[in-house]
Automatic annotation (TrEMBL):
It holds the Pfam family SnoaL_3. The lineage of its organism: Bacteria, Bacillati, Actinomycetota, Actinomycetes, Kitasatosporales. This is Nuclear transport factor 2 family protein. It comes from the Bacteria. Gene3D superfamilies: 3.10.450.50. It comes from Streptomyces anulatus (Streptomyces chrysomallus). Residues 15-143 form the SnoaL-like domain.
Length: 157
């Protein structure tokens, strides 16, 4: 393997590690770690789209959205599949499927509330910085299942 290919492979491995670390911080509810995963000094250009939410622009609004999600989610776990990394210069594009298992507060007692599965396709854009790869943009879109589509179809009259 020549030096150029070796460097590209190393860059891809670093981006994959940064992507995984982002999801792990979210799973742990570690706001400080999650905040550190986002591009600093880009208060106006950072963006995020959570499934069903409007576009959030600006580092402050994006990080507030994650604080809100963490405050209202008792349990969340991501199983990432179909992870693909594309790179150009100091920008990396990661596409993946988020297989999400989450649960809210219990209705009675101390047990965890019912667990819910969700499928989301995501695009994460990273920029290379002196402190490693940082998220510039996240976009998650729900995947409609056959049962979701059936619910939306009108019944013949």
């Amino acid at each position: 393997m020549n030096e150029e290919h070796a460097q590209a492979a190393a860059d891809i491995a670093e981006v994959e590690a940064a992507n995984t670390a982002f999801y792990e911080a979210l799973e742990r509810g570690d706001y400080d770690e999650l905040s550190g995963r986002w591009l600093p000094g880009e208060d106006l250009t950072v963006s995020c789209v959570h499934p069903g939410w409007p576009v959030l622009t600006g580092r402050g609004d994006v990080l507030r959205s994650y604080a809100l999600i963490m405050a209202n989610t008792e349990y969340i776990q991501f199983f990432l599949t179909d992870v693909n990394v594309s790179m150009t210069g100091d920008t990396a594009l990661v596409t993946c499927t988020e297989n999400i298992l989450s649960g809210g507060p219990a209705e009675e007692g101390n047990a965890l509330g019912p667990l819910v599965g969700q499928l989301v396709v995501a695009t994460n854009v990273f920029r290379r910085t002196a402190d490693g790869w940082k998220l510039w943009s996240h976009h998650g879109s729900p995947v409609l299942t056959d049962s979701d589509e059936d619910d939306d179809e009108e019944t013949p009259s």
